[in-house]
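Study this protein:
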Amino acid sequence: MERKHEKYEQLIARCKALAPAATAVAHPCDESSLRGVVEAAEIGILQPILVGPRGKIEAVAAQFGLDISRFELVDAPHSQASAEMAVQLVREGKAALLMKGSLHTDELMAAVVRSATGLRTARRISHAFIMDVPSLDRAIIITDAAINIIPTLKDKVHIVQNAIDLAHALGFAEPKVAILSAMETVNPDIPSTVEAAALCKMADRKQITGGILDGPLALDNAINLKAAQIKKIDSPVAGVADILVAPDLESGNMLAKSLTFLAGADAAGIVLGARVPIILTSRADSVMTRLASCAVAALVAEANRVNSSQVGV
């Protein structure tokens, strides 16, 4: 069996060829968030800019023996101000990544989506888990399990495209995308099956590009080739999907957490569709998961930089 964490280790290793990414870290005021930043900096993934109450950050660093002397520290009085200042650093081009510290996700995202001063683009903002499942031979992407509660068909176009672009940054040349539902046939009584079929046709018409889509697919025949063969599903995606697109936040969240707590998977998380990748970590995350989230964001930022320079040429 493949070693646990090997997929994440490969992502982290790829970052060692890159220059550390300047990262605005909003309110890293507890051990978990500050330690994650220090560890990512030590192995060369990030060049952190710590944004928050100077006294509190320095006190946490001293209490837990964390060396932050090499990092720029921007003083901000409280969590909301920290989020706003971190977003401003990105807008000013001083940071290529944004990272959540110990503030609530809602506080950070409120600053990100603010119309006049935030980081919104023409894309819908969405979340993706990059799952390292020990029993699978590849990392899989699950989206959206954290931001879009009941996404519309229009929202799902952006969610799928964001995930495909993420997969490209991670090295998938043409990722296979399974649009999930409870079954693999179109049933007008189950809206997610109809939307899945529409998304696939939109991909045929190049309204979604860069991946191979199929759906609706049930979870078993999306990730298990034998299940797909038993049901006689003729598809380049069935059984070998790289990206799993959930019908809604509830099902996506339960799928990701089921893999984590029942199958021993790790779940690195990233927010896509903003001007820069946004690293969301949890206090419950392992060291490896925190580092993998940083590595994924750094690879996405590098892909965005390369694509922008090619467009400029």
Summary: The mean pLDDT is 93.
